[in-house]
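Continuing the batch. This is chain 6 of the set; chains 1 through 5 are on the previous pages. Same settings as before, nothing changed between runs. Recording input and output for traceability.
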Amino acid sequence: MTDLARVAALATMGLGASQALVPQTTAKVFGLDELNGQGVWLARLLGVANLALGAMSLDERLRAETDVYVYGLLAGNAVATVAATASGALPKRTAAMVLPFLAGLAGARAADG
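Output for chain 6:
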């Protein structure tokens, strides 16, 4: 595993931990409005998923077995981000942070080969 791939996995886990543990703060950092009770629950759910995704990415065997799914997930996240931004539901500032992060994760995964 390359250092870049390891950093990407750890960054995903860090994002997941912040979403799960301090969802309101994470939302604010990403330029989102204050979350209601359901939004907090959803942010925590997403955080746990990101923690798992990052942890799986640290395991060589799991990385190889899940590449196609992870690329699909990253592409789906990018499409959803663009659509939400185009509709005005998501601030452009948020998309400007999320899209490069997603591209970086995909690039790190691809570079790891």
